[in-house]
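To: structure desk
From: M.T.
Subject: fold request, one chain
Message: Could you run this one when you get a chance? Sequence is below, nothing fancy, just the single chain.
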Amino acid sequence: MASLALAASACGKTSNEASDGGSDDKSGGSSSEYKGKGIGLAYDIGGQGDQSFNDAAYSGYAKARKDFKIGGVDMEPGDGESSADKVQRLEQLARQGYNPVVGVGFVYAPAVKEAAKKFPKTHFGIIDDNTVKADNVADLVFHEEQGSYLAGVAAAKTTKADHVGFIGGVDIPLIHKFEAGFVQGVKSVDPKIKIEKRYLTEKPEEGGFASPDKGQNAASGQIEAGADVIYHAAGLSGQGVIQEAGSKKVWAIGVDSDQYKQKALAKYKSHILGSATKDVGGAVYDLTKSVVEGKPMQGEQRYDLKSGRVGFADTNPKYTAMKDVVAAVEKAKKDIVDGKVTVKTVP
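Reply: Done. Structure tokens follow.
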């Protein structure tokens, strides 16, 4: 672990190091063929504790370690790090014997491509990118626009002001999918509803996914403009959106994880209408299971509403009490699964 710790100090800190559960005599859980040390997980901007995207990945990492009795290391990104830092992180995990190694977020695409070439016997996964093509890489991608469509239906059925908002973390194609689905969902209920739209930054390194203060300021502006339901796709920045919405007694809609259940947001949870979820943890778990069992996933693995890996979390009792809203969301879900509605991926 010494060299791993050294790498961590150079390019992001190690969150959790492997226990003895990752040694050869205990690794592998149900498979005696697995020779890896465990799972290596490299977080995206915002890191663990974002109550959203990265925490969703961690949940799958933790479940896989427990179920398969394997070790693992999850590593945080460094501030202002370069692509070379990401390459170093992934290669160090592979060199130490972790398998699979997962890059959480599209920003890892160049690093995964480079590391996968150097370590052909290690299986890599990347979340939210389908551009890396190699026999030892699984591209784990989602139909985010479908869950966002459900969020739009829920928002449109709930708003009293006929005025809702969307806040994206960074102005990039991935987040455009969230906006496109949300807007289409809103318009399917009532095309006259006004929709505020705001992106926090143009580039990820500018903090769009990691700045709760930016999220709070954007939400404040949309609430002042008249929006009474705000949907965010902004990672850690979304905490600020939810806090502002809760403070101003308007609805917020979370993303990626079921944010109603997040302890850090407990003070505001009564104002979290629901969350457009994507089961990042499930994808991490699926990949790990496939590697442990000796049948590694490869190529594009796309998750959607039909697979159950995209959806709309309905754990807030205030939401489930609104029977007309629930019915509308369920109908929209069925229409998408049945192919009656095709959700747009660009605004």
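Reply (cont.): The mean pLDDT is 90. Let me know if you need anything else for the meeting.
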